[in-house]
């Protein structure tokens, strides 16, 4: 009787549900400390049933980190490769990055705890470095066109901007009083209008 219940598990699980639970466990316990058996127990599944949804713990980590990075990569690439003045494109990137962080807050939280201990983690860190480099290029272009101060290191500005955005995982609550649009506008104003020359461009 008990064996039948465990084998069948709870209804309604799909890969997206498994991924959500896995991300929560990885954050709470640390990736290395979580086994597939732990995840199966959390979901109310047998290990064999869990393997129908996902082939390995490493694949779950890969999916989680891709969730955190894929849309952000697309947004940064589109802005970096876009036409027109750099400063408005930079502002849009920062605002969009806030919205994406809020939309994928658990996955981003996990990404920020990655230390490069596995090939999957190292690949994610390399993707982060590429994003930083492309954002720094936008900062440099905005300085060249006169929209930002040119005495600030673009790489440092890029890291500080993303550092501010990433800090939101520590305190922002989407159910709280600060609406995400207002949050994004505040981050843009704080991160970019400080180094802007004069009134910020429209």
From TrEMBL:
Which GO MF terms are attached to this record? Answer: DNA-binding transcription factor activity; transcription cis-regulatory region binding
Q: Which UniProt keywords apply?
A: DNA-binding, Transcription, Transcription regulation
This protein's superkingdom? Bacteria
Q: Name one Pfam family in it.
A: TetR_C_24
Residue span of the signal peptide, if any?
none
Which Gene3D superfamilies does this UniProt record tie to the protein? Homeodomain-like, Tetracycline Repressor, domain 2
- PANTHER family the UniProt entry points to: HTH-TYPE TRANSCRIPTIONAL REGULATOR BETI (PTHR30055:SF234), HTH-TYPE TRANSCRIPTIONAL REGULATOR RUTR (PTHR30055)
Protein's UniProt name:
DNA-binding transcriptional regulator, AcrR family
Organism encoding this protein = Nocardioides lianchengensis
Q: Lineage of this protein's species?
A: Bacteria, Bacillati, Actinomycetota, Actinomycetes, Propionibacteriales
């Amino acid at each position: 009787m008990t064996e039948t219940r465990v084998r069948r598990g709870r209804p309604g699980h799909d890969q997206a549900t498994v991924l959500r639970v896995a991300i929560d466990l990885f954050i709470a316990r640390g990736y290395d400390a979580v086994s597939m058996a732990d995840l199966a127990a959390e979901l109310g599944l047998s290990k064999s049933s869990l393997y129908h949804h996902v082939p390995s713990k490493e694949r779950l980590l890969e999916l989680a980190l891709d969730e955190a990075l894929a849309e952000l990569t697309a947004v940064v690439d589109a802005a970096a490769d876009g036409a027109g003045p750099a400063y408005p494109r930079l502002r849009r990137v920062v605002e969009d990055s806030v919205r994406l962080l809020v939309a994928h807050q658990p996955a981003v939280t996990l990404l920020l705890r990655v230390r490069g201990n596995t090939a999957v983690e190292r690949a994610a860190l390399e993707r982060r470095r590429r994003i930083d480099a492309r954002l720094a290029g936008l900062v440099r272009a905005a300085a060249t066109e006169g929209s930002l101060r040119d005495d600030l290191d673009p790489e440092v500005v890029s890291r500080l901007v993303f550092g501010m955005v990433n800090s939101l995982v520590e305190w922002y609550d989407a159910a709280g009083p600060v609406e995400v649009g207002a949050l994004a506008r505040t981050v843009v104003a704080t991160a970019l209008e400080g180094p802007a020359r004069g009134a910020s461009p429209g």
